[in-house]
Fold:
Amino acid sequence: MRSVTATLSTQQHCFHYHTQTTFLTTTLIPIQSLSFRTPNHNFRLLCFSSNPSPPPPPLVVVGSANADIYVEIDRLPREGETLAARSGQTLAGGKGANQATCSAKLNYPTYFVGQVGDDAYGSLVTDALRSGGVRLDGLTVVPSASTGQAVVMLQSNGQNSIIYIGGANLSWHRFLPRQHLDLVAQAGIVLLQREIPDFVNTQVAQAARNAGVPVVLDAGGMDGPLAPELLNFVDILSPNETELGRLTGMPTESFEEIARAALKCHQLGAKKVLAKLGHKGSALFVEGENPIQQPAILSKTVIDTTGAGDTFTSAFAVALVEGKSYRECLRFAAAAACLCVQVKGASPSMPDRISVMDLLNCQ
Ligand SMILES: Nc1ncnc2c1ncn2[C@@H]1O[C@H](COP(=O)(O)OP(=O)(O)OP(=O)(O)O)[C@@H](O)[C@H]1O
Ligand SMILES: [K+]
Structure:
């Protein structure tokens, strides 16, 4: 049994109606958004699918959680010098936490498996994830380590300098607890990045592969070659241009060069490569098939591209686990990332699903 909920909203009015009086589920997934105008009003009709069957298998992110400490300065301090910053702000960050936040904001059931210290930054990150709707059953507080931190020095010439403290993100036990691996095995899709040790990623990817769960590995985070055993368990490797160049040791300036580097990734074990190409867009390379290209959806205002990569990877994974075609996944991800670059910061800029669907409807 399936029911459909529609919300009709104008600036002055908001009507809700249900096609059924019994409402059996808490999972509401927007499936369509239609906009139309009358001379006096702009209307938006939101259609939700509510399914009384169990919620879909979750997206599970295993990765890093940080406190990102942003300071705006005119220039870097000299040795021994104390400088006053123009402003300072501490926000939840880390590629893992960002990607989990994005998926939850897109209204897909999401779990985060990660580690924080028993300190104020750990509480900040935990509260941000929880209030964003991310399930934290897999979050471990490590008393002996500090929460990961990134001191981001935003200079007035547009340059960013970052000091990173891995902290609890790097202090994992050699073998993952059974409950984490069970959660991974029950997932619809698993998202990894490179801000936690490779041995954690490898165990997670292997558990997912054994259970037939697809794994997306965002290549962002630590540099260095990828362990072949990890690559063998990964379904989609997602680097940006720089990461693709570093992983393969090949140039990635032109599309032809990027395609050749993707081919090298296939030879290294990654059968699908999702390349993020900044304002030039993205491309999916599936071994033995023609690449699928997706231009960036450009906006008039680009405020801050921080978090665009995490938003793109996470939105792509959400669309994929929902059964969309690769082409649709790329479009959905490009729309989410386009909205992200219009807002300052990483997690505050991640869009909800309605905004993404509205943008896609306008295209
Ligand atoms: N200026 C822009 N306008 C619109 N979309 C953009 C822009 N820059 C990036 N994007 C979108 O975001 C996606 C990811 O961006 P990018 O390739 O810069 O990832 P990234 O380098 O991993 O990002 P970051 O590390 O800053 O989070 C792109 O594929 C594109 O769809
Ligand atoms: K942003």
Q: What stands out?
A: Residues 3-50 form one domain. The CA atoms of residues 164 and 350 lie 23 Å apart. The pocket of potassium ion (ligand 2) is lined by residues 304, 306-307, 340-341, 343, 345, 349 (CB under 6 Å).
